[in-house]
Write a structure and sequence with these properties.
Number of strands: 18
Largest sheet: 5 strands, mixed
Distance between the termini: 28 Å
Shape: globular
CATH class of the largest domain: Alpha Beta
Strand order of the largest sheet: 4-3-6-2-7
Number of domains: 2
Helix content: 10-25%
Strand content: 25-35%
Structural class: alpha+beta
Number of helices: 8
Bound molecules: zinc ion
CATH topology of the largest domain: Lysozyme-like
Radius of gyration: 21 Å
Length: 357
């Protein structure tokens, strides 16, 4: 079980906790009930499409890759005072009708809907099954460029000047924590729609609450949120580096690859660090038996370069720790994936995560 990348990632996220069996059926919180500190985040009672009376649909695009972030939206509908379950289910049906009949989409655009009364509902069909299993996702229609990597949550209402009701806010925390747990998404990877598109969504007030949301989700997951974390998914690399979306284990839309050769032709990852200090450096790569068994990662630490070699034939699709290094503050190169490997097979440069420790 520890070889399952999802479980390994989730274990890492939860601070080394070993989770019991039953993840696929969502019953593991029962397994762990005797250990209060280890209690998993339960499904927050998400009503399925069948429960709220969705129309049947077809032609959905389900993919094997897991999402890497959450995007928070507001529906831009009136802040109605009917906070009943019936009102929530009516809302879900009206959104589906609008998205199918007016927008011409195959189904509801977002993955989940959170009503003003705090009723959480499945949006696009199969979103709930994927979330429960922690495996793959259905491509949504809530933010261009992010639909195959971000879970979209629509919060009923308009939050430009008004606060979301407490029930809705608390349920948003519950839902995000459950999503982060099931997909091993770091709480730092919760964003607003406007972070990826020129839009008011999710409203000035709700957007300003996103730092608090990330903190609350981190607390729910029993983790101490890092003071700084950044994911770098677009290295600078020369023309001999190709781009591929071949492997479902990739982070984000694609990754870079190159043939091993004794040349200085790295794929460089650059970040702006808030201050001089120690940072944990991790990499995410898709593994393949044909990839390189000893890919050099050259870390540009303040005390000098350190090279960490990674076997990219195995253990892909998760964060792999390269170590903790001292860096100066400000904008700087963090590391380069080098082609200078004695091993055969492509060297892979996908994503790098830098976390203050
Ligand atoms: Zn939006």
């Amino acid at each position: 079980m520890s070889t399952d990348p999802l479980i390994s990632r989730r274990t890492a996220l939860r601070g080394g906790l070993l989770l019991g069996a039953g993840i696929a059926v969502g019953g593991f919180e029962v397994t762990l009930a005797s250990d209060a500190a280890a209690a998993a985040v339960p499904n927050p009672g998400i009503a399925s499409c069948t429960t709220w009376g969705a129309r049947a649909v077809g032609g959905l695009n389900e993919i094997a890759t897991r999402p890497n972030k959450i995007l928070v939206h507001h529906t831009d509908t009136p802040n109605q005072t009917d906070v009943s379950k019936d009102a929530a289910y009516r809302l879900a049906r009206s959104i589906q009708n609008y998205h199918m009949d007016h927008n011409g989409w195959s189904d509801t655009g977002q993955h989940f809907t959170n009503s003003r009364g705090g009723y959480v509902m499945e949006g696009r069909h199969t979103s709930l099954a994927h979330l429960t299993s922690g495996s793959g996702m259905v491509v949504g229609a809530h933010c261009p460029g992010q639909n195959n990597q971000a879970i979209g949550i629509e919060n009923e209402g308009t939050y430009m000047t008004a606060e979301p009701p407490a029930a809705q806010w608390n349920r948003l925390i519950d839902l995000c924590a459950y999503i982060c747990q099931q997909y091993a998404i770091a709480p730092t990877q919760i964003f607003g729609h406007r972070d990826y598109l020129a839009t008011d969504c999710p409203g000035d007030v709700l957007y300003a609450k996103l730092p608090a949301l990330r903190q609350a989700v981190a607390d729910r997951l029993n983790g101490t949120p890092p003071s700084f974390q950044v994911v770098l998914d677009a290295p600078t690399a020369g023309a001999n580096w190709g781009s591929s979306s071949y492997s479902a284990q990739r982070y984000g839309a694609d990754y870079r690859y190159a043939s091993p050769q004794a040349v200085s032709d790295g794929a460089y990852y650059r970040a702006t660090l808030p201050a001089a200090g120690n940072y944990k450096v991790e990499t995410w790569y898709p593994a393949d038996p044909g990839y390189n068994p000893s890919t050099p990662f050259v870390v540009f630490a303040s005390g000098g370069n350190s090279t960490v070699t990674v076997d990219q034939r195995a253990n892909g699709g998760k964060w792999t720790n390269l170590g903790t290094f001292a860096f100066g503050g400000g904008e700087r190169d963090i590391l380069a994936v080098s082609r200078w490997s004695s091993g055969a097979g492509y060297v892979i440069a996908d994503a790098v995560r830098v976390t203050a420790v």
